[in-house]
Amino acid sequence: MSSAPEKKPTFELSDDEWRTKLTAAEYAVLRKAGTERPFVGEYTDTTTEGVYKCRACDAELFRSTEKFESHCGWPSFFDPKDTDAVILKVDRSMGMKRTEVLCSNCHSHLGHVFEGEGYPTPTDQRYCINSISLTLEPKG
Which GO terms describe its molecular function (predicted)? Predict the structure, then answer.
């Protein structure tokens, strides 16, 4: 899995503006790379058809057709909506090497992607995304 080149965010706000725009919980995850508790997120078990967008900037990130049940406690997708919708970044926090997923539009933290773990998906990847990082625009 390769990382996209680091690019300047299209949607930028100051830290004070982010704190005003987002709730404290949203800010902790989206801007400070926090993680919501498993199995409590709004979209963990959602099967509604539509497009998942970045809660911080409204950029389209994932489609419901790429969402699958991985039983990990967070919404899981096997591919982003477009290859340039997200940025992948090496994350060495928590004493391990993982791949962080960021919104390419505003560089907000979305979650992590895991690869090669035998997921029953066309890409053998699991984009494990915090519900609080997303909004769902239902189809139609």
Answer: peptide-methionine (R)-S-oxide reductase activity
Q: Is 49 helix (H, G, I), strand (E, B) or coil?
A: coil
3-class DSSP state of 119: coil
Whether 106 sits among the annotated catalytic residues: the reply is no
State pTM to two decimals. Answer: 0.90
- The whole-angstrom separation of Cα 113 and Cα 110 is 10
Catalytic residue among 54, 103, 106, 128: 128
Q: Spell out the residues 6+ positions from residue 136 whose beta carbon is closer than 8 angstroms to its own.
A: 43, 46, 48, 50, 51, 52, 53, 64
Residue 110: CB atoms within 10 A of its CB come to 29
CATH superfamily of 15-138: Peptide methionine sulfoxide reductase. (2.170.150.20)
pLDDT tens, position by position, 100-115: 999 999 999 999 999 8
